[in-house]
Amino acid sequence: MILAGCGGPISTAITDAPRSAAPLRLAALNALDARVARVAFRLSDANAALCPAIRQSAGWALHAASQYSEELRPYAQARFGLDGDLPGLLTVPAGSPAAIAGLQEGDLVLAVNGRALARGPDRREAAFEGLAANIAVIDRSLANGSTQLTVRRNGAEIPITVTPRRACGYEVQLNPSDELNARADGRRLFISTALAGFAETDDELAVILGHELAHHVLRHRVWNESGGAARRENESVWRAEGGEGGAEQQADRVGLYLAARAGYDPAVAAPFWRRFGASNWRVRFPQIVHASAESRARSLEAVRHEIELKQRAGENLVP
Ligand SMILES: [Zn+2]
What is the CA(287)–ligand 1 centre distance, in A? Predict the structure, then answer.
């Protein structure tokens, strides 16, 4: 999105800043992760018909001990029963294929279709590769349909068959960062912990993630993948992307439709932007790529009106 222009650094390992005690930071991070995963699942599930890339999704959010910093890891292991690179279920959104299959938060995935996943070596540094490799094994099986998992729950090993559903084919990732930022890179959506925390409700989070998902729906990924400062200095690019009717305004419009289609309240978008603008000087004035918070709020009011007219008339919410 947004704010600082759909840009910013990517990190996949979960690290931490020395601010509060490790268990508190872990709890806050996990709570945000769960919220982001829940909203992302609903958006991806409800908008599969509009997404150019589709995947078979279980709807869960997975994490692993190896992904946490040395300081947070013992607490993550104790709280969730995590072990090495083995994927644990951090979030099982209501109504998701994972929930329907009977999976629960805290389950640890040991095997897929009878084949053991790799626990990996003990590492000091936080790393994502081991978990990513295990997720890839699971995703390959889900792509072919029903998948049998062996999970550890309260010390017992339980077989559970999960039947995935078509969903938008993008990973959503929460990046620990103080920057108020979100972005889309063509395959994934990223949102910073600061921005996810700024969204007070799931409806507000759906406005942000809807905007990012809209960049995928609108196939803006080429720009997002390469959109660095050099390109943003080009005035014709600015007009095409950030000006009236540009890519960002399109993403705001389509994003609000995506949120409404997933059952979120489109009325929160304009007040959210005004609150955001009032709290963050960078969005109070028009930026190179993104219009000012106030002009975005006004455009979003118009889109909200359009959506509500369609809802009242019982029409399909197609942007
Ligand atoms: Zn954007």
Answer: 12
In the structure, what pLDDT confidence band is assigned to residue 19 with cuts at 50, 70 and 90? low
Ligand 1 center from residue 251 Cα (angstroms): 6
The domain over range 54-167 is classified in CATH as 1.25.40.10: no
Q: How far is CA 158 from CA 92, 164, 187, in A?
A: 17, 19, 33
Q: What pairs with residue 149 in β-bridges?
A: 112, 160
Spatial separation of the C-alpha atoms in residues 259 and 291, rounded to whole Å? 21
What pLDDT, on a 0 to 100 scale, did the predictor assign at position 86? 98
Beta bridge partners, 60, equal none
pLDDT value at residue 287: 52
Per-domain residue ranges of the chain: 54-167, 170-312
> How far does the centroid of ligand 1 lie from the alpha carbon of residue 215, in Å?
7
Distance 243 CA to ligand 1 centre (A): 12
pLDDT digit string, tens, across residues 193-205:
989 999 999 999 9
